[in-house]
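The freezer alarm interrupted the setup, so I double-checked each line after restarting. Inputs confirmed:
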Amino acid sequence: MENTIINSFEEIPYLKSAEIYRLFSQGKVLNKQKYDDVHGCFVDDGLFTLVFNKIKHFTLFFKHMGYELKLDDEGDFYFTQEIRDSNNDESDDNAMKIQAVLLFIGRYYAKVGDLEQLSDPMFGLKETDIDALKQDELLVSSLKALRLDNWDKALEYLNSRDLIFKMAKDRYVLSSAAAAFLNRLITAHTEFINNESTN
Amino acid sequence: MKQFSAINTLKIMLERPNIMFNVIKQMDRHNERFISEATLALTVLEDIKSLDKKEQQRFKLAFATENLANSHIIADQDQFDNVNRLMFQEAVLSIFRLCETSLYQELTDAKLKSELASFWHIQSKLKAESCSFNILDPDYTELVEELLQKLGSLLDLLKRNLVRMQNINSDLEQLSIDVSKEGIDFAEYRQKLLDDVTRLYERHILPTQKFVNPDVRLIDGDNLLATINSIKILFDSHGKHELSDQVFRYSLSFSNIINPLKDVSNQINGFIRKTQKSLTQFNAMEWHFERFKQKYEETLDGRVNRTKVDSSFAKETQFMNNVKRIPRPKTLKIENNESYFHNVFTDLTYKIEDQLLTSDDVIDAEGEALISFTSKDRLERARQIYQLIEKLKLRESKDVIATLHYRLKDLLPKYHFVDLINAVVHYRKTILDGKQLIKTNQKSYIHHDNEYYVYRVVILQEAL
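Predicted 3D structure, all chains:
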């Protein structure tokens, strides 16, 4: 028994493991695919593959650190939650900021195009889109009420959590995690409408 | 019966604005300016039924016809088919419309034409030979007054209408809500939707857009901007530059309205081209955004310190909940500046002085005093701590209790928490030495002998 446990650690390059720990400790998500600057497209993230292949090891590893490693299979991404069930203001605020800003982006984009384009590097969120978002005063004051100073800070906030990737100055593409959230909103709405009509 | 003044009646009406919102909705629906006394009473009762008796009484009194009439909230009453009908003051209705954008009355073609006609009227009067352009002529001053009042009210009307139109997205969502329903024939549905949207566009947006468009040609006269401009030129030619300036600024504001209006019509254009899938997306986003907006609007209530959106919104959708950064150990901060070194050296000096105090045998090994704990021994130990504390030097500290704790712990043999209490009390009472203590509301704790002691943090600083 002792041997197998030691082996699972030995099987994994410690540099990669440290990188994975660092990523989650910064509150990021680990997407299956990341944006590749050089080729301008999405490529498989080696760290995701590593976690996926050694899921037993990493689940146990994070459990010992006090965190639960979870896979969101709709969005193909891993994230960590604190096991201690603390009613934590900080994490509530994080979720609120993330969900609201993604909703603002989705709402704007649903007016001008198809949401799927947001996670396509050919399209993504362009400078003109960001300008339009900045023009909307309701959104700007909403950001302030979320304790995000402005749109640049809000996008930086999502970027720092790997929910969106920066392709160029003022050009972003949504990660599969963020796209999964927008899809979840659509599903919730469809369910709401259909439940209402059957009632 | 108890009566309220106009201002208090209005205040009470504004306390539960839904009553008037519903009244206005009913009148708008029937396209009437009157509401029957009974309908009003029913609306009031429906809204206040959850309140306690005394509160209900207050609202009943305020909305009583007699009170409304005496405080001039209603402009007129009449009998029609044996029903007593009330007509509210237009100003009162405007206040409520201002508070709820969905109650704005859309500007119709007819309404806009009549506005324009009144400008033509003023224009022709100013152009007439008989117009004096003399401020001493009451006909002329009244005309100017009328012009400015008209310009102001028209701008206000258009602006409010614009706000209403900018909410077009929620209208479109309402129109197309059925698209997410299962088993819908999209082609057929789309046709119906197109008809609805076209009606919305032609009845309400197109007229306003035409109205402020400087390039539009009308059969019976100049368009709005051309009319205003000709009035400006008239003032200019008579040397009334201040007036011409004012009129010019109005014309700028009118022409500024056209850009946001173009955005609105672009949105409608985009909406018409939507496929079933993107329509579903659009509706879902608008619906969730309304959910968010409700949370956001809670921050706009009367409470000054409430500026942050409540995060309960996020809990309804499973995404990134309970995810946060893992806190990392903080590094020890060593700085290279004068005050940092000053603090280090005073700490060292005090430590040395402390050592000298104990080596002078100021305090004997008094451990037994604690263990036997007779009152006499306790007093003796306290007295000795007092003497010690009078000799201790303390520097400014953000937490003087903790400082004392660590100093005494090293100084006193068999240190006990009671010693710290004695020391703090004595220090506070006697030796402040040009410094002052500030008690804060922050709590902190000391861990000693497997026990935790919670205390309020006290700051020591130079007396001002």
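Quick read of the result. Chain B touches chain A at residues 169, 177-178, 180-182, 267, 270-271, 277-278, 280-289, 292-293, 296, 299, 307-309, 311, 313-326, 328 (CB under 8 Å).
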